[in-house]
Design goal:
6 strands; 4 helices; alpha+beta; single chain; 2 domains; globular; S-adenosylmethionine decarboxylase
Length: about 140
């Protein structure tokens, strides 16, 4: 596969071959699994530890077979019991979390494309957060 700059130049000049275009269209088709995961009854200490949440979501992405590109997590305010928001950017899309420790609740957005396994990510997240109840909404994107 050509590097992106030479590929772009070939496309712009109209020199891209039909077979190359078809194979890339299949490889990068807009399809994925988008899961909205609501975790209820999570211990407040599980929902305030920025470093542990970042490690958990990166582990979940790796368990799913995804490739982590970047992550950024933020605690709201200076109190140690404040909620956290975070994103793990993946080559295959993303995982995000928003926590409300005062309600024992975490909202997780898991969007994975390609040959990945969202069920494995969910198992990892459930083991890490130990929620009392999980509600998962699954959508197929691009179908």
């Amino acid at each position: 596969m050509p590097d992106s700059s030479s590929h772009l130049a070939a496309v712009e000049s109209g020199r891209e071959s039909a077979s190359e275009s078809a194979s890339e269209a299949t490889a990068f088709a807009p399809r994925g699994a988008h899961w909205l995961i609501d975790c209820h009854g999570v211990a407040d200490t599980q929902l305030t530890d920025v470093n542990a949440l970042e490690a958990l979501l990166c582990d979940a992405a790796n368990a799913a077979g995804a490739r982590v590109l970047f992550s950024h997590f933020h605690r709201f305010g200076s109190a140690t019991d404040a909620g956290v928001t975070g994103v793990v950017l993946l080559a295959e899309s993303h995982v995000t979390i928003h926590t409300w420790p005062e309600h024992g609740f975490a909202a997780i957005d898991l969007f994975l494309c390609g040959d990945t396994h969202p069920d494995r990510a969910l198992t990892c997240i459930e083991r890490g957060l130990r929620p009392v109840r999980v509600v998962t909404t699954r959508a197929k994107r691009g179908s």
